[in-house]
Amino acid sequence: MPQNYVKVLKEKLSGHLGQIVFVAGIIGILLLFLSSFIGGESAPDKIKTTSSDSTEMYVENLENQLADIISDLLVDKNVSVMITLKNGIQYIYADETKTDTGLTEDKSGSNLLKKEQNDTNEQKYIIVKDSDGNEQPLLITEVMPQVKGVVVICSGGDDKNVQQTVQNAVVTVLDISENKVCVIGRQSK
Questions:
Q1: At 150, is the pLDDT very low, low, confident or very high (cuts 50, 70, 90)?
Q2: pLDDT tens across 93-117, in order?
């Protein structure tokens, strides 16, 4: 009896089975197509966002650490520090470059032989999958931003000795030149 049941079921579904598979295939293709619109940001957008957020956090961390050091140095809890950067954090990704050099010869009826060299380069980033299955380029290193300038506002910042002390601390901590550091006294209201 079970063999007859399977045979009858196959016969009834055989006409509909092709239609079901076809419709399921179309639905699958539509879902894949729609997921590209609904899926969210592309990988490069995520990298840019991360880079911007990381740079802001880097600057904020530097400013807080520098303010803490200057506060301890001057025994002044009311120190403000602002740091500007030349650029953001730069990420260097692993890539593979394929160079193809071609040599062509032209024999155009004259006795002169003309040679032309064509070079083409193809660069591709190496992509890896993380534990969640997301694909991203393989990061080799991060290059931290260069400091463009520093402004420090503190009590006594108008005094030349205080300015020199604070300036020496900033120059030493950030490894920048003295002309990139401005120390200003806090004005009372």
A1: very high
A2: 888 877 776 666 665 555 555 666 6
Q: Provide the whole-model pTM.
A: 0.55
By CB atoms closer than 10 A (0-12, 13-18, 19+), residue 136 is: middle
Helices (H) and strands (E) in the chain, counts: 3, 9
Identify whether the C-beta of residue 91 lies closer than 8 Å to the C-beta of residue 51: yes
> Tokens representing 179?
């002309």
- Tell me the two tokens of residue 171: 């120059």
- Taking CB atoms within 8 Å and a gap of at least 24, the contacts of 58-63 are 58/89, 58/144, 58/145, 59/83, 59/85, 59/145, 62/147, 62/174
22, amino acid identity: F
